[in-house]
Write a structure and sequence with these properties.
The chain is of the alpha/beta class. Helix content is 50%, strand content 8%. The chain is built from 51 helices and 24 strands. An eight-stranded parallel β-sheet has the order 3-7-6-5-4-8-9-10, sandwiched between helices. A hairpin with a 2-residue loop joins strand 14 and strand 15. Helix 8 packs parallel to helix 11 and helix 10 packs across helix 11. The longest helix has 75 residues. The N terminus is likely disordered.
Length: 1517
């Protein structure tokens, strides 16, 4: 964009021109917002610079067509899919009631921006809804920048297509900060302080000059022009559809290319005018109900009035309801008079009338909730509902709307709101729509619908389209990080060119699965052009294969499942996909991705098994036809070969595959089974093969397997009468040949019937006597299901060419070979020449058979492990060559080496037998796999773990035990022997003392370099280090590592228990084909096979037979049988069958998923009901407890009222204390609630059924530091269990703990006038003598038991009135009326009285003095003297008697701090100043003189003290 366009305004010709300067123009012309932008630039960060944003300045009177056209061109704006205008007020905007709803709206708008090219338009201010949207856009922009930087850094390239962010701010200049204007331009709407800055997150700005309301209405015109020109750019034919060629009269718009939608949130009367303009122009409005103000009022009016605007009575009622609604919900500043209210009401009614039309609705309402995250649903619904039927049914509009729903991935709305209105069926899926559905992620529902409508993939897909799919496909992370690395030459260059689809795809497929030329771009493109290589069906199948390969490499698992549903070969395709995923999992580095890819592989493997199972249950013949089918798309491999190549053990374990293998294993023959025969089938087979003649008795050849040997006598003779009701093959004559046949018309009294019944009775009686069944049952007829006319030599041929016969005969001859080999190995070397030659010749024939078999299997595509076979051939060749050379050159090496090599060969041949013959055994096969797993995995790990210990101790033990042994091969051998074989035996005897070594013990080694104790270096050194090292090595090896190995073996046995059976069946396939490809005769009889084949080759070379005869004679029977059973091509009906079966499988899966989902929902519902029941039960329990507590409180309150009424007329001194304040909850300074105690339950003698008060003792460390020495510790156990502690044992007495005096005596008086002896509770702590308080423990008091306090009351007479000295600021600032002191640390009552008096009255000369020094009084007389001295100190006339001192109270204090184990006891002393005394002190500034009658809100105890003082002085007066 040019600089001229970025900063500009309009001239007289509506062109964008550059301003002469960026400063504020002081002329009379229009003022530009450049100064505002400059000021915003100073306050915004660099990345949000407003000056770098494109903007334009317009007037409401300007023409917009050329302006908008230039804006499109100069700003390079993308063509939008949707234009959304966000409407909200500035003055009426308030914070959302639910912050989550605002966040949901932000997420919904961002989702809309990500899915489509959306233009957002608002007022552009840094306030209200505009700021909310701007913040969301700013966060999205920041996120995109960070993601782009990470991608570039991680991959070295930048490739990610996203929709741009276009956020317009159409801002009235009148409300911008820095814009000086008069009040007229604000329309009495805003004041000078109602100015706002621009939101820097907007991408484009359009500034509108003029009055505020006019600018807001002009915004609608701007948006309409933007939508019109955007629609023309998207669909140029729209202009022709809007105008007739004869005139300029516009026609009805038949489709809407770019919809414009307004969203209303809150708002006031200005936004009402704006909404009215939208509706007049036919634009839909989406109202967010629940945000308040205009949105709620308009939503209410539309809901109430959309169905009753026709009747005038209903209209008046609606207006009345609206008036009430406006007065409650609308902005009061907008309705300064009744006229304003009426105008607003009428505008709202007009909005409803405009919105409600015959076949469309222009207003849509959605609620403010968390569902605003999916606001695109409401947006689409509002857009579709705003069009009339004729527009909605047009072909162009249907396609546009469907594309919009596909962009937003809303298949439900596409079905219900778009396709449902296509009554004429004009909508057709084209290649462009299908390609977009493939490129965009998660559009499987759309693709499935396209394929359901028989969309032809081969007419869509060619090599260019496939290349474009790889280049433009969304979410290509997997393709880049996993698939692309399979092509090393493109590792650092992400550029998908044509060579990738023409060559690279086949390279990847071959690398992962071993299949070559899977896709052909030539055939794909030829089919796209209509030039089919084969036919249309083949072209569709191969196009589907290519498309599924793309989905697989892009890791579109769900899309792959949808495409698989419509493929023609579901089972081999699923196996191929499973193999591809399994191969890709090996190249993934992230563990989570490996797990995902592995799960995908298992899913498709399970799908193949499920479809196979469905087919097998429906039709065995069709299933076996599939298993024998060769598929050209997969290199002419059968399903079983694909499963074996992909190592899909679960597929090969299926019953159908195993039945097919059994048929191949038996070669079509059957072994007879009679009830009384106990001879195993294997013995019958071996004896029949060896002795030939048992074939007649034990071997049968079914007609179904040998149909071409069927005799003519097996056919139904001519003239047979058939029963048409039972089918054409049902013969009545066959029924007549039955021994006990009863004719339908037979008479019950005929002689024939009597004879038949007698024969049946005789037969049953003979069966009961356990007679021979063979003599009873009839002989098999010649018309049975077995071939009887086959030549005997053919029976022998078929028997010997059966894989089962080959297996057992090979095993028999192999055992003979092993016996001969074993005997030749154990014989002395000089006497076994002939045996060795026989072994070598036999081994040579085995080797030759392996070589030829490998060639045969490779040529016919049978599974063969070439690496393992190569190792076997190399070893056996080396064995034969070495033994042959040694026999020919006997003296070349020591005979022992020959014997050792023979032993090695014997071991190998014995071990080879396990891998050759054991896998076919149902018991030994799985066990062999377990052993293989334990040896190859567990034992290897054990060796790696134990090797450091073995090597370390090999050198360490040798160095310590034989320090003087010379270094050599013997030393190394001995060290390794000891370290390694410790796994099996221990060498404890080696560290025993030996007599022959003791004889060589050295006594003096100072004169020689010798380390050991013995002169013989072969004697082990015995010492502490020897024992320590041997012990640690034995513990590690024998007690730890060996036990660990056993644990690994046990864990493996458990782990592979289930897989072992599947792996056995999987390996069985390879074994069966291996024996099927072997010659009929085992080594060394294979010489005759080779002789026969050689003769055939010679005859063929001399043209005595043709190639067909040669192949027929030399090709193995089972190989011919397999190749013959495999059909080359299936019919169209077969394709339809498998596709139908796949869809049936999907239907069952959907049903199962629904059932599982319903079951899961039921379980969840039951769990929630159980949780609700549990919560309800807990709530009921709590309510019950609350009711009980309320009952107790009610009883207590009623008793309190009753006691208060009874004591109303009784003097207070005669009322008994019942711990009123001591039962107040919560406890002071805490949240602890006391146990509720009624008045009648306070006294201890009154028994309570349940009394469980809580415990609380303030920790000692929470007290002030100077008070902690005088505080008892926290006691939570029974004190009787503690040791004798004088601090806790001096109850009702005094004691001295260290230098601290503790007084635990109570000052309460008993009935006898003596001090009360309080009792102890069950835990050994003192018990409150007054009664229960509802709390046990020490509370916040210092001591358990009594806590003594002293209060001093000072009074005097002034003007004939009694005055008392009280604390200033009570009760707001200080908690007590009269000061008090705690008696701790041995302080006496008299000393405390003097301290309080000195603190309340200070000398006149020193107002800041806290008191004077006096001698500590220890008696009442000394206290009197001290107080008199303080009162007369500094007086002009010394008076010996100026004070009256008296104790007015000494006893229990009812206080909230009291507990069951600690309570307050109070001494109250009254000091009265005589009127005429020379008193030289005055009150401290913290105290004030007051009359008792003027004191309010005193505590009960202080009220009682005041009352006692007043009564005493009143009685004296």
């Amino acid at each position: 964009m040019s600089e001229d366009t970025r900063k500009g305004t309009l001239d007289g010709k509506n062109r964008l021109v550059r301003m002469e300067n960026d400063s504020l123009l002081e002329s009379q012309g229009p003022i530009t917002p450049l100064d505002v932008i400059d000021r915003l630039h100073e306050r915004t960060p660099p990345e949000e610079n407003v000056q770098d944003k494109p903007f334009v300045f317009v007037n409401p009177t300007d023409r917009l067509d050329s302006l908008v056209s230039n804006v499109f061109y100069d700003w390079n704006l993308p063509s939008p899919d949707i234009i959304i205008s966000l409407i909200s007020g500035t003055r009426s905007y308030t914070a959302w009631k639910h912050g989550d709803h605002r966040a949901a709206l932000q997420k919904g708008i961002i989702k809309l921006i990500k899915a489509t090219e959306t233009w957002l338009i608002d007022i552009g201010l840094d306030y209200g809804l505009s700021k909310t949207i701007g913040d969301a856009v700013r966060n999205e922009q920041s996120f995109r920048r960070s993601v782009d930087r990470k991608e570039v850094f991680a991959r070295g390239y930048f490739k990610r297509r996203r929709h741009g962010i276009t956020l317009f701010g159409i801002a009235p200049v009148a409300v911008l900060e820095g814009y000086e204007t008069d009040d007229d331009s604000l329309d009495n709407y805003a004041h000078r302080q109602d100015k706002f800055g621009l939101n820097a997150s907007h991408t484009h700005y359009i500034f509108v000059n003029g009055k505020y309301k006019e600018a807001k209405k002009f915004r609608v015109t701007v948006e309409r022009e933007l939508a019109r020109q955007a629609a023309l750019r998207r669909s140029p034919t729209l202009l022709q559809e809007k105008k007739t060629p004869e005139s300029d009269v516009k026609m009805t718009v038949i489709h809407e290319a770019v919809p414009l939608l307004a969203i209303l949130i809150q708002g006031d009367h200005v936004e009402l005018d704006q909404v009215l303009e939208y509706l007049r122009n036919g634009f839909p409005v989406l109202i967010i109900r629940g945000t308040g103000f205009l949105a709620d009022v308009l939503a209410f009016a539309f809901e109430e009035g959309k169905d009753r605007l026709t009747a005038s009575k209903d209209l008046e009622q609606l207006k009345s309801e609206l008036s009430k609604k406006l007065s409650r919900s609308f902005c009061e500043a907008c309705m300064q008079s009744d006229t304003d209210r009426i105008v607003i009401r009428d505008k709202i009614v007009e909005c409803v009338q405009l919105a409600v039309q015959d076949d469309c609705r222009l207003i849509t309402i959605t609620d403010s909730s968390d569902d605003l995250v999916d606001i695109q649903d409401s947006v689409l619904t509002a857009i579709f509902a705003s069009r009339n039927k004729s527009m909605n049914s047009s072909k162009e509009q249907l396609r546009s709307d469907f594309l919009l729903t596909m962009r937003l991935n809303k298949p439900g709305l596409a079905e219900s709101k778009v396709l449902a209105r296509d009554e004429a069926g004009v909508f057709q899926v084209d290649n462009q729509l299908f390609e977009k559905a493939l490129i965009w992620k998660d559009r499987e529902h759309f693709i499935e619908r396209f394929l359901d409508e028989d969309f032809c993939i081969h007419k869509f897909l060619n090599h260019s389209v496939l290349l474009r799919l790889f280049r433009r496909g969304e979410d290509n992370e997997f393709f880049i990080t996993v698939v692309w690395e399979q092509l090393p030459r493109h590792h650092h260059d992400f550029q998908v060119d044509e060579s990738f689809v023409t060559i690279g795809l086949n390279v990847i497929v071959q690398k992962l699965t071993g299949l070559t030329d899977y896709v052909s771009m030539f055939e794909l493109t030829s089919s796209f052009l209509g030039r089919y290589v084969e036919d249309e069906y083949t072209a569709e199948r191969k196009a589907m294969n290519a498309l599924m390969l793309w989905a697989l490499l892009m890791n579109r698992f769900n899309l792959l499942r949808v495409l698989w549903k419509f493929c023609e070969n579901p089972i081999p395709t699923a196996l191929f996909i499973s193999a591809m995923y399994r191969g890709l999992a090996k190249h993934c580095s992230a563990p989570s991705l490996v797990s995902q890819i592995t799960a995908n592989s298992r899913t498709f493997s399970g799908m193949a098994i499920d479809v196979l199972d469905m087919s097998y249950k429906e039709s065995h013949a069709r299933t076996f036809d599939l298993l024998n089918q060769r598929f050209t798309d997969f290199n002419d491999k059968t399903v079983l070969k694909l499963a074996y190549m992909s190592k899909n053990k679960y597929f090969l374990s299926h019953e159908a595959c195993q039945v097919w293998l059994n048929w191949l294993w038996n070669g079509g023959i059957e072994i007879t089974e009679t009830w009384e025969s106990r001879i195993p089938e294997e013995v019958k087979l071996i004896l029949s093969a060896l002795f030939i003649f048992p074939i007649c008795a034990w071997i049968r050849f079914p007609v179904k397997n040998f149909a071409r040997h069927k005799l003519e006598s097996m056919e139904a003779p001519a003239g047979d009468v058939t029963d048409s009701s039972r089918g054409p093959s049902y013969s009545v004559r066959q029924e007549a040949g039955d021994r006990f046949h009863i004719y339908p018309a037979a008479s019950a009294q005929s002689e024939n019937t009597e004879r038949l019944l007698l024969d049946l009775k005789t037969l049953e009686s003979r069966c009961k006597k356990k007679a021979s069944y063979r003599s009873i049952l009839p002989k098999s007829s010649s018309h049975g299901s077995y071939v009887n006319g086959m030549a005997f030599w053919k029976k022998v041929y078929y028997l010997w060419t059966t894989p089962r016969t080959k297996f057992w005969m090979s095993q028999v001859f192999y055992w003979v070979y092993l016996g001969l080999f074993s005997f030749a190995t154990i014989m002395p070397t000089c006497n076994d020449y002939d045996l060795d030659v026989a072994v070598v010749i036999w081994t040579f024939f085995i080797l030759l058979e392996i070589l030829l078999r490998t060639v045969t299997q490779s040529r016919h595509g049978f599974p063969v492990n070439l690496f393992r076979r190569a190792l076997e051939i190399v070893f056996m060749s080396s064995f034969v060559l070495f033994v042959s050379i040694m026999k020919l050159q006997f003296g070349l090496l020591r005979p022992h080496y020959m014997r050792a090599w023979m032993a090695v060969g014997l071991l190998y041949m014995y071990y080879r037998m396990m891998s050759e013959f054991f896998p076919m055994n149902a018991v030994l096969g799985p066990m062999l796999y377990r052993i293989k797993r334990m040896v190859c995995v567990d034992f290897f790990l054990f060796v790696r773990l134990s090797m450091p210990f073995v090597l370390a101790n090999m050198f360490a033990l040798q160095a310590v035990m034989y320090p003087d042994l010379p270094l050599g091969a013997e030393t190394i051998r001995k060290g390794f022997y000891r370290a390694f074989f410790t796994l099996f035996i221990s060498f404890v005897s080696e560290i025993d003392r030996k007599e022959d070594c003791e004889e060589t013990r050295l006594t003096n080694t100072t004169d020689m370099c010798w380390v050991g104790d013995y002169a013989n270096p072969h004697c082990p050194h015995i010492g502490f280090s020897t024992y320590a090292l041997n012990i640690q090595f034995l513990v590690i090896m024998r007690l730890i590592l060996v036990v660990l190995l056993n644990a690994l073996f046990a864990a493996t046995m458990i782990k592979v228990k289930e897989d072992a059976e599947h792996i056995f069946k999987y390996e069985r396939y390879g074994t069966v084909l291996d024996f099927a490809s072997r010659p009929a005769l085992p080594p060394p009889l294979t010489f005759f096979n080779y002789l026969f084949n050689g003769t055939v080759l010679v005859m063929s070379k001399f043209n005595r037979m043709n190639d067909r005869q040669k192949a027929n004679l030399t090709t193995l029977r089972m190989v011919k049988l397999i190749e013959k059973k495999a059909a080359e091509k299936r019919s169209t009906n077969s394709y339809s069958y498998w596709m139908g079966l796949t869809k049936e499988y999907y239907r069952k899966k959907v049903k199962e998923d629904k059932e599982k989902k319903a079951m899961q929902e039921n379980i969840t519902r039951l769990k929630s009901m159980a949780e609700e029941q549990k919560l309800a039960k807990n709530l009921i329990n709590r309510l019950s407890d609350k009711i009980k507590e309320g009952e107790q409180k009610l009883i207590a309150y009623m008793e309190s009222i009753k006691n208060g009424m009874e004591r109303k007329d009784i003097p207070k001194e005669s009322q008994s204390c019942v711990n009123v304040l001591s039962r107040v909850s919560p406890y002071p300074g805490t949240d602890i609630k006391r146990y509720l105690v009624a008045d009648h339950d306070v006294l201890w003698p009154v028994k309570m059924d349940i009394y469980e008060p809580p415990y609380y003792s303030k920790p000692v460390e929470d007290f002030p530091t100077d008070e902690q020495p005088f505080t008892d510790p926290v006691i939570t156990v029974n004190i009787n269990a503690l040791s004798t502690d004088p601090l806790l044992r001096c109850w009702n007495s005094t004691c001295l703990v260290g230098d601290i005096f503790v007084d635990r005596r109570s000052i309460l008086k008993g009935l006898d006038g003596e001090n009360l002896m309080y009792g102890l509770a069950e835990n050994g702590l003192p018990r409150n003598p007054v009664g229960r308080t509802g709390l046990c423990g020490r509370g916040c008091l210092h001591r358990y038991g009594p806590n003594h306090r002293v209060k001093t009351v000072v009074s005097r007479m002034k003007d004939g009135k009694l005055m008392v000295l009280v604390a200033k600021g009570y009760p707001a600032e200080v908690p007590v009326l009269f000061p008090k002191i705690a008696l701790t640390g041995g302080k006496s009552v008299f000393e405390a009285v003097c301290e309080i008096f000195a603190s309340m009255l200070v000398p006149v000369e020193d107002m800041e003095a806290k008191g004077t020094q006096w001698e500590t009084p220890y008696s009442v007389e000394e206290m009197h003297s001290a107080l008199q001295a303080m009162a007369s100190e500094g007086a002009e006339t010394n008076t010996d008697h100026c004070l009256e001192i008296e104790e007015i109270y000494g006893g229990y204090q009812d206080d909230p701090k009291n507990t069951d184990n600690a309570w307050l006891e109070l001494f109250v002393w009254h000091v009265h100043i005589l009127p005429d005394a020379a008193f030289a002190r005055q009150r401290h500034e913290k105290y004030v003189w007051k009359e008792p009658v003027t004191i309010r809100n005193a505590s009960p105890m202080e009220e009682r003290i005041l009352e006692m003082v007043v009564n005493k002085k009143g009685s004296e007066d």
